[in-house]
Specification:
Blueprint (H helix, E strand, L loop, with lengths): L10 H15 L4 E8 L6 E8 L4 E5 L8 E3 L12 H10 L3 E2 L1 H4 L1
Parallel strand pairs: 4-5
Antiparallel strand pairs: 1-2, 1-4, 2-3
Length: 104
Amino acid sequence: MKRSFGPAETIKSIELRLEVEAVHTFRIEASAVARLYGEDPAVVVGWLYVWNTQELAIRCSDESIVFRFVDPPIDLDRYSPRFQANKSVHARLASTRPLPSQTA
Protein backbone atom coordinates (compact mmCIF):
# COMPACT_ATOMS: atom_id res chain seq x y z
CA MET A 1 0.00 0.00 0.00
CA LYS A 2 1.51 3.33 -1.04
CA ARG A 3 1.42 6.12 1.49
CA SER A 4 1.89 9.83 0.95
CA PHE A 5 3.00 12.07 3.76
CA GLY A 6 2.69 15.84 4.01
CA PRO A 7 5.82 18.01 4.05
CA ALA A 8 5.18 19.16 7.62
CA GLU A 9 5.19 15.63 9.05
CA THR A 10 8.31 14.63 10.92
CA ILE A 11 9.79 11.15 10.83
CA LYS A 12 8.64 10.65 14.44
CA SER A 13 5.01 11.56 13.67
CA ILE A 14 5.03 9.29 10.61
CA GLU A 15 6.39 6.39 12.69
CA LEU A 16 3.77 7.00 15.37
CA ARG A 17 0.92 7.09 12.83
CA LEU A 18 2.09 3.86 11.18
CA GLU A 19 2.42 2.20 14.60
CA VAL A 20 -1.16 3.16 15.52
CA GLU A 21 -2.43 1.81 12.18
CA ALA A 22 -0.56 -1.46 12.72
CA VAL A 23 -2.09 -1.99 16.16
CA HIS A 24 -5.56 -1.94 14.63
CA THR A 25 -4.64 -3.88 11.48
CA PHE A 26 -2.52 -6.80 12.62
CA ARG A 27 -3.25 -9.40 15.28
CA ILE A 28 -0.70 -8.64 17.97
CA GLU A 29 -2.33 -9.92 21.15
CA ALA A 30 -5.58 -11.40 22.37
CA SER A 31 -7.27 -11.37 25.75
CA ALA A 32 -9.70 -13.90 27.18
CA VAL A 33 -13.01 -12.14 27.79
CA ALA A 34 -15.34 -15.03 28.69
CA ARG A 35 -15.46 -18.68 29.75
CA LEU A 36 -17.55 -21.07 27.67
CA TYR A 37 -19.45 -24.04 29.09
CA GLY A 38 -21.11 -27.05 27.50
CA GLU A 39 -24.05 -28.99 28.96
CA ASP A 40 -22.49 -28.99 32.45
CA PRO A 41 -22.35 -25.41 33.75
CA ALA A 42 -19.63 -26.45 36.20
CA VAL A 43 -17.05 -27.40 33.56
CA VAL A 44 -15.27 -24.83 31.37
CA VAL A 45 -14.85 -26.23 27.85
CA GLY A 46 -13.51 -23.17 26.06
CA TRP A 47 -12.68 -19.48 26.15
CA LEU A 48 -13.70 -16.49 24.06
CA TYR A 49 -10.83 -14.20 23.09
CA VAL A 50 -10.83 -10.75 21.53
CA TRP A 51 -7.84 -9.64 19.46
CA ASN A 52 -6.52 -6.06 19.40
CA THR A 53 -8.20 -5.82 15.97
CA GLN A 54 -11.61 -6.57 17.57
CA GLU A 55 -11.68 -10.00 15.94
CA LEU A 56 -13.20 -12.71 18.10
CA ALA A 57 -11.76 -16.19 18.51
CA ILE A 58 -12.83 -19.31 20.37
CA ARG A 59 -10.23 -21.51 22.01
CA CYS A 60 -11.37 -25.03 22.87
CA SER A 61 -10.04 -28.56 22.64
CA ASP A 62 -12.85 -29.91 20.47
CA GLU A 63 -14.42 -27.95 17.59
CA SER A 64 -17.60 -30.04 17.79
CA ILE A 65 -18.48 -28.82 21.30
CA VAL A 66 -21.83 -27.04 21.52
CA PHE A 67 -21.62 -24.13 23.93
CA ARG A 68 -24.63 -23.66 26.23
CA PHE A 69 -23.42 -21.09 28.77
CA VAL A 70 -21.09 -18.08 28.73
CA ASP A 71 -19.60 -16.26 31.73
CA PRO A 72 -19.64 -13.30 31.88
CA PRO A 73 -22.47 -12.57 29.45
CA ILE A 74 -21.05 -10.96 26.30
CA ASP A 75 -22.65 -8.44 23.95
CA LEU A 76 -21.32 -9.89 20.70
CA ASP A 77 -22.72 -6.96 18.71
CA ARG A 78 -20.11 -4.64 20.19
CA TYR A 79 -17.39 -6.41 18.20
CA SER A 80 -16.88 -5.59 14.55
CA PRO A 81 -19.08 -7.71 12.26
CA ARG A 82 -16.76 -7.00 9.30
CA PHE A 83 -14.56 -9.97 10.18
CA GLN A 84 -15.59 -13.39 8.91
CA ALA A 85 -14.23 -14.87 12.15
CA ASN A 86 -16.70 -12.79 14.16
CA LYS A 87 -19.61 -14.10 12.07
CA SER A 88 -18.64 -17.70 12.80
CA VAL A 89 -18.22 -16.93 16.52
CA HIS A 90 -21.67 -15.31 16.55
CA ALA A 91 -23.10 -18.45 14.95
CA ARG A 92 -21.43 -20.78 17.47
CA LEU A 93 -22.49 -18.69 20.47
CA ALA A 94 -26.01 -17.79 19.30
CA SER A 95 -27.71 -20.23 21.67
CA THR A 96 -25.61 -19.51 24.77
CA ARG A 97 -27.10 -18.00 27.87
CA PRO A 98 -25.74 -16.76 31.21
CA LEU A 99 -24.78 -19.30 33.85
CA PRO A 100 -27.78 -20.36 35.99
CA SER A 101 -26.31 -18.70 39.09
CA GLN A 102 -26.25 -15.34 37.27
CA THR A 103 -29.92 -15.39 36.32
CA ALA A 104 -31.21 -15.52 39.89
